[in-house]
Design a protein that fits this description.
The complex is a heterodimer of chains A (113) and B (186). Chain A is 38% helix and 17% strand. Chain A is of the alpha+beta class. Chain B has one domain.
């Protein structure tokens, strides 16, 4: 168990004594670490798939999604990006171990620009 | 706190090199979309060779090494987001205290921990933490790990949670090696 009692006590004095510009610099340093990952535009620019356009994600719900996973079994351990045939349709991205069906990351959806 | 840690790394430079230099750090890399869940540091699975092998197969394309060791973590510098409700509550309290400075930024846990680590540099008594442990949860987790308290109810517990431990400084990973697995892609 961490001893955060002291940290909580010190938090108020830090907030009172450290200038705002220092907090702002620290926040900018953290944001610059790139933890949030690429923007959507960066994602599109950096990820390409030979399977682009082969699936229409508008044609069904979960069932369509599972058909998609099976169809990609040959792809191995890769990040997959599927773009539907319509530019304004959702983009489906996932990382998965196809032997177990165990997702490493949550599948994510985003809308095309 | 003592536990067994499993650290997966690339199977490069030979066994001796790995034994002398492991664990290896996980760092942020925006271009490669590398996002350490608990911030930059030295990562272990808590007593979970299966997860370590999975990570090796997935992340290192089956060409990997697993470094198994005993981890000794100083209790009062161990932020335990698994077994300590007090730690969870106090971390939330710290986040709330600094929320005004963070503003409207939607920071991830890794970003928040990095923020607190940087405040530690202003005052070494603040957030004096060497290691963090958390559950790596996923909605798509396999059902076979779940066991219901009552088969007629929805509530369940997970007998195989993936626990990750991140050390922020290598010198604080007090360990002794117990086993070293290798897997070479054919």
């Amino acid at each position: 168990m961490a001893n955060l009692d002291k940290s909580i006590e010190l938090a108020d004095s830090l907030l009172a004594s450290v200038p705002d510009e220092v907090f702002e610099r620290i926040l900018n340093e953290v944001k610059a670490l790139g933890i949030a990952g690429p923007t959507y535009d960066e994602y599109l620019a950096n990820f390409e798939s030979e399977y682009d356009g082969q699936f229409d994600l508008n044609s069904g719900g979960d069932k369509n999604r599972f058909e998609f996973i099976n169809d990609f079994e040959v792809a191995g351990y890769n990040t997959l990006v599927v773009r539907s045939t319509r530019k304004d349709a959702p983009v489906f991205t996932c990382e998965s171990d196809f032997e177990t069906g165990f997702f490493f990351d949550e599948p994510s959806f985003s809308l095309a620009a | 706190m003592n536990t067994i840690g499993h650290h997966t790394c690339a199977n490069r430079n030979g066994n001796t090199y790995i034994l002398q230099n492991a664990p290896f750090p996980s760092e942020f890399n925006k271009e490669a979309n590398k996002i350490p869940f608990l911030g930059g540091g030295y990562y272990f699975w808590d007593t979970n060779p299966d997860a370590a092998h999975f990570w090796g197969k997935y992340h290192y394309k089956e060409n990997y090494s697993i470094f198994e060791c005993v981890l000794n973590i100083e209790d009062d510098k161990f932020l335990d987001l698994v077994g300590s409700r007090k730690d969870m509550i106090q971390l939330r309290e710290l986040i709330d205290k600094f929320s005004r400075k963070i503003g409207g930024e939607n920071l991830s846990l890794g970003e928040i921990l990095e923020y607190l680590k940087k405040l530690h540099n202003l005052d070494p008594n603040f957030f004096d933490v060497d290691a963090v442990r958390a559950i790596d949860s996923s909605k798509s987790k396999r059902n076979e790990d779940i066991i219901y308290f009552n088969n007629n109810k929805k509530q369940y517990t997970d007998l195989c949670p993936r626990l990750i431990i991140c050390f922020y400084r290598k010198k604080t990973c007090i360990f002794r090696v117990t086993k070293n697995y290798f897997s070479m892609r054919e």
